[in-house]
Amino acid sequence: MPELQNIALIGASGTIGRPILSALRAHPTFIPYVLNRQSSKSIYPRTRVITIPDDLSVSEIAASLREHSIHALIIAIAGSHVSEQKRLIDAALESGCVRRVIPAEFGSCDSADDETNSVLPLMKGKSEVRGYVEGVCEKSRGRLSWSSVVTGHFFDWGLGNGFLKYDVKSKKAWIVDGGDVRFSTSTLGFVADAVVRVLEREEGTRNRMLYVQGLYVTQNEVLRELERVTGGKWEVVEQRSEKELEVLRPRMLEGDMEAREEVVAIWGIIRGDWTKKEGFANELLGLKEEDLRSVVEEVVKSQA
């Protein structure tokens, strides 16, 4: 079977979509295409753009994918957009040319974990999409396959915007459960590299959950690097995850978005160790972990 070559990406202007598009552009053999809704104001210079209807009509998208002989579809829209992802998966099957779909699994927590789904209803959408794509691929009798890439917290993005429980500008850290819990996390560039490597290894990554990590760290290790780079001690607030979740989860379930972000941040630390997962895929994908010191230096520099 010829290698995957024509790769379509939807959500290319988003947090994870931008670095994925850059990685596809830099690849020596991949030919990237961006799926762009008709009403979108996003512009992609020097990029092949396929305009698709706002309602994500399955038949129209399938025809467009077929017209451009698309071999793989990467969905980088918000994972909560369940019905939209299902239509895109249906279009991939109907096209007859798409061989691999990568759904919007990227992120902090594991939607294949029952306790995670119980704590975070947000993850249930990702689980539902994965169940759907599994069924569609089974129906295709091998013509279509899927890969889900689970990355842990987006480290550089989260560190820079306060999501990871550090405030670089005020030099303040919120440390959970003593700060020595080790968790998997990845920079946006590392995630994009992982996606590219999945597409390079079509057979070995077929119909699999793939857990990757660019960094395997504790909060205290990150704090030490932050203090070194910024040249001084930080204010530290000690937190217990159980107590925090008792307060935050009810607010999250009532629609409080800040509370939801806090729950995700905490859960991605205390339940984010991918090295214990059967699908831990760094070796399979030939991924080399990043250097914590260098990454922290870059993030602090960007916040100056």
Distance between the termini: 50 Å
Q: What number of structural domains do the residues give?
A: 2
Order of helices and strands: EHEEHEHEHHEEHEEEHEEHEHHHH
Sum up the overall morphology in one term. globular
Number of helices: 12
CATH class of the largest domain, named Alpha Beta
Cα-atom radius of gyration: 20 Å
Q: Kindly name the structural category.
A: alpha/beta
Give the fraction of residues assigned to helices. 40-55%
CATH superfamily annotation of the largest domain: NAD(P)-binding Rossmann-like Domain
Strand order of the largest sheet: 3-2-1-4-5-6-11
- Would you count the extended β strands for me? 13
**CATH architecture verdict of the largest domain:** 3-Layer(aba) Sandwich
Mean pLDDT: 96
Q: Within the CATH hierarchy, at the fold level, what is the topology of the largest domain?
A: Rossmann fold
Strand content: 15-25%
Give keywords.
304 residues, alpha/beta, UDP-galactose 4-epimerase, domain 1, 2 domains, 7-stranded parallel beta sheet, 3-stranded mixed beta sheet, 12 helices, 44% helix, NmrA-like, NmrA/Isoflavone_reductase-like, NAD(P)-binding protein
Offer a concise description of the structure.
About 45% of the residues lie in helices and about 20% in strands. By secondary structure, it is an alpha/beta fold.
